[in-house]
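Quick start: read one record
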Amino acid sequence: MNNSHYNKRLKPLSRDLRIDGTPGEAILWSKVLRARGTGYQFNRQFALQLKELDIIVDFICRKLKLIIEVDGSSHHSKGEQDYRRDKMLNDIGYTVLRLTENEVRYDIDNVVKVIEDTINECVNKLMLQ
């Protein structure tokens, strides 16, 4: 396993998820994250392998070690699973920002502010290392 934890075996599934993403993911990508709108490169539906777990994250900035997840209604029952997954990502140095589908769809200005603040925190954390 390399430092990026990239899992190329999940590439076809990642591609399908990019095509069939949620409205919130599409909004976040087109209005905020695509084409370095934040000043940093993000990838969509990025496949990772962590120990025995294969996962696909919604958005990742590998330079900042930042993952952004857009949680829809299906995540209401996945709290414990999301917590364990986030902990594993935190343990290898990633910051995980979880946003709800409704926040992205109906309060994009606040979402942009939260993302900007989180990026600044990640930059500061990297500078301290």
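Residues 60 and 67 are 4 Å apart (CA to CA).
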